[in-house]
Amino acid sequence: MNVVLILMGIACLQALIILPEPCDKLIVEAASQVLLETFNQGFDTFYLISLLTSTDFDASAGLLVQRAAALLPVIVESIDTKIKTSSKQRFNVILMDSEASLDLLSVLITKKNFDTFGNFLILLLSEAEAGDLCSHVFQVTAQYLIYNVNVLYRIHKSIASYTYFPYGTPGDHLTRMARWNTFMQAGFVSPKLHFPSKFKNFFGASLGVALFRTTTFMDFSYDAEDNIVNYRGVDGTLLKTIAQALNFTIRPIIPNNNQRWGTLNQNGTATGAMGLLLNGTVNLTLGFFGNNYLRQQYLTGTQSHYQTSLILCVTPGSAHGSFEKLLLPFQFNLWALFAAMFTIALFVIVLLQFFPKYVQHFIWGRMNRTPGLNLFQTTIGNPANPAPSRNFARFLLTLWMLATFVLRSAYQQIMFYNFHHSQNHSIVRDWDDFIASQYRIFVIPPERYLLDNLHDHIQRQITIIPTEQANATLQAIRYGFLRGARISYPESLYYQNLQVLNNGGPFYRQFGKRLYSYTLSVFFRKNSPLVDPFNGQIQPLVTYGFVEHWRRELLNRNLQEIIRTRMRRALATALSVPILSGVFELYALGMVGAMVAFLVELL
To answer: Which residues form the signal peptide (predicted)?
Structure first.
């Protein structure tokens, strides 16, 4: 196939060379010099595309083909004879002479077989209004995200070389088109690269960034004039680091109406940050931004810079009742063992009533007329009255007191811990419990796609809420006012529970099953040239652990601040009447029982 194409080029070459029109050798010499200094940069073929509307410049075109063919194979094309190649064209030499050629360029450049990251050398062979034509060429190429463009045209006795910087030229970030070099009879005046890198230095140009607050990943602060001046969090620090490395300024834009990520529809329309990105208001967006199939169709993301998991924050179990709190320190089997011990002791006391006195004295000791009451007294830690005098009786009493002492100490220790920590019944642990408990999953519109792959039974329990109600719903779930769940991620719950340690209140509870892994990226418009320079900065930051370090530093700094605050307070949680309500209720029941016994004795 390539042989056929080359032969076609030679045929066109012969047709062009025999034309008698005068030739502008100076611009041909300049173009040849560009080709000579560029052909060893990984290119194997030159594509010469003629968009000439006049035959006055055919001689120049023929000479250029002849010079180029001495370096590499040349494929000659035109707007009418576009050749379908097996690979995308990487080095294109385009000949133009008028505004009509510009219209042809607009039609040609939309073809799918051009590599937009390749090189485009454009020759304007007519001097008439070449400056305006050059400006219009850059407008067309920039519209299709083509930036490796070098335009040559004659200005009096020299050839001017112009190129386009999409985000500002050296020394002036507001200017886009720059005169890059000049060709004289002796060659180019400056030894600059003909296709300089446009994405290693943005020369202070501003890039629009759609952003919003997301816990642990994106936060920012304002100055006195209500301008965003600092960025924090994993994504915030990443943005600052890349901006410094690529030398651009951040122009932050927050989506209207708290739309955050926004929604993306099948037809390509979007709201929120994605809407700002697609309509060209911003250049990029980030802030806990994940990927899915629909986003891949309309957006382009960098390599993943962080991986986390999606989880559910669920309603805590109901609070324990007053008597439940009294029973909490021991499990049922331990309470049953204690009850059995006490019952057996009472049974022995009752049984000994039928034995001779000397046996009773041997077991209880002399003068012990109320062994049952003494059993109760020693169980709760009071001394026996009177104390036994016989060795065996003292031995039995000592064993009982040691056993009850261990039980009382363990009970008091665990009870003290429970009084100072929020205790609730168990939360739902698996999907069966979740479905059986009729928990609702409350999601805002941008989050709905995250649950598309869940089982149909779970899909029926999804409720979409307005974005502005997201935080209120989460707090209602946290306090148990609303039975359900909200989508979250471990870093967020950890950070928020650290705040709870400092400010008080119930903890955020995590559902026992994670949804799935979730990778984060920076997103741009489709085929944006910013993807490669951002990837070049992100890759070493991930490889060498900087991103993970930022996450740990943020969470550890927050934890250290909380520890310092709690040390300044230096006070344990004070016990209160509600905490001890079970004890007072038990005391009240005892008083009622005593009153009933007193009334019975009076009768």
So the answer is: 1-15
pTM (whole model) above 0.85: no
DSSP state letters, 497-521: HHHHHHH-SPPPEEPSS--EEEEE-
> Burial of 304 by CB count in 10 Å (0-12 exposed, 13-18 middle, 19+ buried)?
middle
DSSP string, 159-183: EEEEEE-TT-BTTBTT--EEEEEEE
pLDDT of residue 570: 47
Out of 388, 419, 450, pick the residue that ends a domain: 419
Could you tell me if 326 and 582 are in contact, meaning their C-beta atoms sit under 8 angstroms apart? Answer: yes
Whether residue 290 lies inside any domain: the answer is no
What domain range is 598 assigned to? 576-603
Q: Which two tokens stand for residue 120?
A: 């485009």
| For helices 531-543 and 233-246, angle between their N-to-C axes, nearest 10 degrees | 120
- Encoding tokens for residue 178? 């720059």
Biggest alpha carbon distance in the chain? 146
* 330-381 residue pLDDT tens: 777 888 888 888 888 888 888 888 888 878 777 777 777 778 777 877 787 7
Residue 284 pLDDT > 90, yes or no?
yes
Mean pLDDT value of segment 153-167: 89
Taking CA atoms, 252 is separated from 201, 228, 236, 299, 403, in Å, by 20, 7, 11, 19, 69
CA distances from 169 to 143, 180, 183, 201, 208 (A): 18, 10, 20, 9, 18
